[in-house]
Write a structure and sequence with these properties.
CATH superfamily of the largest domain: Glycogen Phosphorylase B
Shape: elongated
Number of strands: 13
CATH topology of the largest domain: Rossmann fold
Radius of gyration: 22 Å
Number of domains: 2
Largest sheet: 7 strands, parallel
Number of helices: 14
Strand content: 15-25%
Structural class: alpha/beta
CATH class of the largest domain: Alpha Beta
Strand order of the largest sheet: 3-2-1-4-5-6-7
Helix content: 40-55%
Amino acid sequence: MSERSEPSSPPRPLAPTPFLMAGGGTGGHIIPALAVARQLRARGHQAFFVGTTRGLEAKLVPAAGFPLIYIDIGGLNRVSLARKLTTLAKLPFTTLGCLKLRGAAVFSMGGYVAGPPVMAALLKRTPVVVMEPNAVPGFTNRVIARFVSRALISFPETARWFRAGCTELTGLPVREEFFQIPPKPRADTLTVLITGGSQGSRTLNRAARQSWPLFRQAGFPIRIVHQTGASGSESLRDEFASSGLAGEIVPFITDMPAAFRQADLIVCRSGAGAVSELAAAGKPSILVPFPFAADDHQTRNAEAMERAGAARLVRDADANGERLFATIRALADAPGTLDRMAAAARQLAKPGAARRAAEILEELASRA
């Protein structure tokens, strides 16, 4: 009887296979694509990006050691009519220019930068893999949804936008440190992390400031750690110092996994990266969607998290000090609620998203 052998890792290719990475403009489009590109490079392949000189990719991609090919394209969603017409006029020519790009398969994070290279790939019948981290796909991914080879999603309900059988629930690439955060036993003092992202949020900053005297008057045992962004940080810090509450006000948190580790509850926006980190860390949250996000995708993300039992949704227009105080206190006072929300968030975690995306790209390229 022969011994059962362990599964072996995929063999290294004889020659590096080139993969085109599409998507730019914001960190939310670029950072996950870079994670997949690093996985491809570690497996012996080549990855190159397509982007613009205006987007964040112009800084991040070369710094990560990947080639970046520039194209001239603008957005179509939430722009002026003049800009939309200019983009529509350029689109056919930019797409034709992308026909000369050679990739065995294309990985797309969506966004306006992805439009021309993805359309060119579809015209050439090159396999296209899209990663759609939001509950509702962005404009570009909605347009090409019927034609992509695979769609990697973060929420089960997103599957309805794509062909049956082409979706896989992979989640979004998230730093490993978030997955390593253990459940936090509840202490006498509730630690609340408030963050509107690296740039901060005027809504969250205002609501937090309004809530301080309410927590103080109620004698509620709370410690607040608040990332405010650079604007207004100094005045908020001075006011907080006289509030009588424990905690700290900082413009930027360098080690966000460490801040998550200390928190019992997190108040934040609901972009794809934020909700993916909450799931990976298994943290209960109060989500205040940015109301002007494209296609209102942050609200859809927050609704999906709330349906799963992992979060409470507070709309931007309703986010004031009284609502923040009341919501935090209600969650903290209900026995076991925060623990159940944490467990529900952890159920949404999807480790290994970048590795799985690289495996799928390899598989499709080998068939092409």
